[in-house]
Amino acid sequence: MRSLPDADPGLPDIRSPFRYLWWNARRQSRALLAGIAFATTWWLAQALVPAALGMGIDALRLKDTGALLAWSGILLGLGLVQAFTGIMRHRFAVYNWLSAAYRTVQLTTRQAARLGATLSKRLSTGEVVSVGNSDIAHIGSSMDILLRGTGSVVAIVAVTVILISTSPVLGLMVLIGVPVMTAAVGPLLRPLHRRQKRQRDLTGDLATRSADIVAGLRVLRGIGGEQVFAERYREESQRARHAGVGVARVESLLEGAQIVLPGLLIALVTSVGAAFAVDDRITVGQLVTFYAYAVFLVAPMRTITEAADRLTKGHVAARRVVRILSIEPEVTGGTGSTAGGVLRDSHSGVTLQPGSLTALAAARPEDAISIADRLGRYSDGDVTFGSADLASLPVEEVRARVLVADNGARLFTGTLRAELDVRGTATPELISRALHAACAEDIVEALPGGLDAQVAEAGREFSGGQQQRLRLARALLADPEVLILVEPTSAVDAHTEARIADRLAAARRGRATLVCTTSPLVLGRVDHVIYVEDGRVQAEGTHRDLLTTCPAYAATVTRGET
Fold it and tell me: Domain ABC transporter: where (predicted)?
């Protein structure tokens, strides 16, 4: 079985939506050309059936048995060709759809991982969800329709040649009538796409609202705001529903036009052809051929209209994908290297020594978060790592050596073992040690499957304190050179917090660790405490010394205790 999609999607051409679609087509050009060949043969086999049928009817009228058998054999052969090429056309259509769609999934997923926090700052949750829900499908459809669309154009040309060579008048009627009907439905496409865009935007906003409500549901219930947000969600969902009805109205008009207009052409061709047959200008078989072609041309004409619709949607979808792929990370790295050493933030004066267990107590929590972001290279700053500027190191190296673990980290779906051991290399003993240090053994013991139990999306089955302890165990198991923990015990009880603080030093022995907290239970168990006020280091020492020598620190710790 062939792997789909390719392991490496390559580097896309994101200079414009058209160039992105063209790049996709070139990436799967062999499959596209093969599919177009089968689709063209499939359409031509259908296009030749009315001509063969007309010739067979004329042979029957002339009582020419040999010709009748020959044309019957040709009809059978055309049927077999249709069956085979139809199967192959469909297989290549599905393959091309999946290739383009999932190549886009690979690219957007890779870009999301590259952007990190930048993505959520530049795009809303609903926008990203809409790309995954609908845009990739439109891009796949734009590749799929190329097969039938190209074949339908070839079929229309072939039918036109046959009709003009048989009867120039009727041939010209069909030749002129098909483009006129196609142009007649064209004005409906623009309002359709306009309404589709509005529906998509409203759906994206609704998805963003849903994510916000779910993320803050506990808070909403606590302040009594659940009903207010429910009403707002109901209003927005109704707007999205009305927009969907508007799309359906235009689509119904388009579908009706694609039936009525070809019907008028069929009636006109049939009436004129019947008059010609009465005057012996064409044979009965040719009259049947003209009627059959007028009916047949409905299908390729609708395919051309469908192709215009899908290609337009694909172009719009590609514009949104290109927008995501064009975003550059707020934080970029260089090509330098360092052997490690002291990690220092010159802006605040915070210095983290190798092998030390240090606590950072900030008068304002946002100052601690800002420092952690700079030390972890999640925001720009004058930070050095040993003898090297942190900004000069590759981002991948920084992420591997410096881990910032905060309470915004998520638990993902899968087994608990895989969730904790993200690298897949930890032994059972190492996992047990990490769980012990995070006081999370009881969580695993309570699960029916233990470490093999399935974790729901975002760890919904765990309480806030349980999630925090599991995140801490995951961070400890990663065993980075530098670990920065942001309020790692804010959701646990005092007894559990004290045990975690006692075990943290042993779990991180020989490694640099910074704990951003104002909890006295943690501050009293670390090697060194740094007090920050207004974004700058104001005092350093042990917890006990700072309580007596720094009133501002004592006031901050007291507030953290209550």
Answer: 322-559
Domains of the chain: 17-326 (1.20.1560.10), 343-561 (3.40.50.300)
Contact 89, 42 (CB under 8 A): yes
Do residues 246 and 195 lie in contact, with contact meaning Cβ atoms separated by under 8 Å? Answer: yes
Residue 251, token pair as written in the block:
């689509």
Q: Output the CA torsion sign for 438, 442, 447, 452.
A: positive
Alpha-carbon distance of 518 to 520, in angstroms, equals: 6
Strand partners, 359: 515, 529
pLDDT 10s digits, 188-239: 666 766 776 677 667 766 666 665 555 555 544 555 555 666 777 777 788 8
State the first-to-last Cα distance of the chain, in angstroms, to the nearest integer.
Answer: 62
d(CA 474, CA 466): 12
The region that residue 340 occupies, defined by phi over 0 for left and psi between -120 and 50 for alpha, beta otherwise, is left
Strands (E), 283-430: 343-345, 350-352, 357-362, 383-385, 388-389, 402-405, 414-415
Residue 77 pLDDT > 60, yes or no? yes
Q: How would DSSP label each residue in 518-559?
A: --HHHHTTSSEEEEEETTEEEEEE-HHHHHHH-HHHHHHHHH
Could you read off the pLDDT of 388-411 as tens digits, one per residue? 999 889 888 898 899 999 988 888
Nearest to residue 496, comparing CAs of 524, 465, 526? 465
> Are the C-beta atoms of 531 and 538 separated by less than 8 Å?
yes
Pairwise CA distance, residues 13 & 22, whole Å: 8
β-strand 482-486 against 402-405: which pairing, if any?
parallel
- What whole-number distance in Å separates Cα of residue 110 and Cα of residue 223? 39
CA dist 117 and 115 (Å) reads: 6
Token representation of residue 270:
């049939």
Within 10 A of 211 (CB to CB), how many other CB atoms are there? 15
